[in-house]
Amino acid sequence: MNRADRRRADKEHARKIDAGIDLDDLSPEMMGSLIRRTYSAVEQARRFGSVAPILGFMNPLIDKSTQKAARYHSIACSKGCWYCCTVWVAASIPEVIHFANTVPAGQKAGFSTRLDESLSQFGHLSFDQRGDTVTPCPALVDKLCSNYQNRPNTCRTAMSADADICRRSYVELSGEDIPTPMSINGIRGIFVVALECALVHAGLVPGAYEFQAALKRTLADPTIERRWLNGEDVFAGLPEDPKAPGEIAARQSFMAAAFS
């Protein structure tokens, strides 16, 4: 495909992406277009010295795509349903920084206190050990997320067909599988891959880290955003989300296709 053909294809792909990705329409070419557009947002973030352009691009698309996928299913999630806000959450570096930057001013003191209390109790636990505990997110206030608009991909795409199962599994630790539609998991994965590919191509550190520990480090160091945008590994040593086998190889394949 020459440059003119790619520009025409990208324009059509952008139209479909902006309306919310439909998994039935997702092609390797559209995925490549999403990766390149995410990369453009990353480069804009570097110019501005702020991660906000990355999330300003991605979060609305995640929401539209998730809503589109959910229309084929009966979803039990509703305002005040908080059961999934008690588990290990993995978030990318820009998501963590953006969330920390946007905690409402009137909530910051309480948020920091709850974060410290949570980490003192659960911060030493591994990913597997956290599965046997109930660890409420410090952003949870009166069963509502106090920074809902800026929650990470993991939270934006957390959906279930049965709230009772969520309560039993997350709060009562019954171990039951959450009935999340596969299409929702697919949407989550698409945007994880797009962001990681864009970050690697831009020379920035990718990866997903345990949300609370990463928030603590971010809030304690006002230079983290600038240093990460300059290519530093600012979350080194923090608990990372376990990688699925083949994930890095798949990312490399997508990158090669997107930027060839």
Explain briefly what this protein structure is.
With 260 residues, the chain is mainly alpha-helical.
Describe the structure.
The chain has 260 residues and is mainly alpha-helical. The chain has one domain. It has twelve helices and four strands, in the order αααβαααββαααβααα. The protein has helices at residues 3-18, 28-48, 52-70, 93-101, 108-122, 127-130, 153-156, 163-171, 182-201, 211-220, 224-229, 247-259; strands at residues 90-92, 140-141, 144-145, 208-210. A two-stranded antiparallel sheet has the order 1-4. A two-stranded antiparallel ribbon has the order 2-3. A hairpin with a 2-residue loop joins β2 (140-141) and β3 (144-145). The protein is globular, with a radius of gyration of 18 Å. The termini are close together. The model has no long low-confidence stretch (mean pLDDT 93).
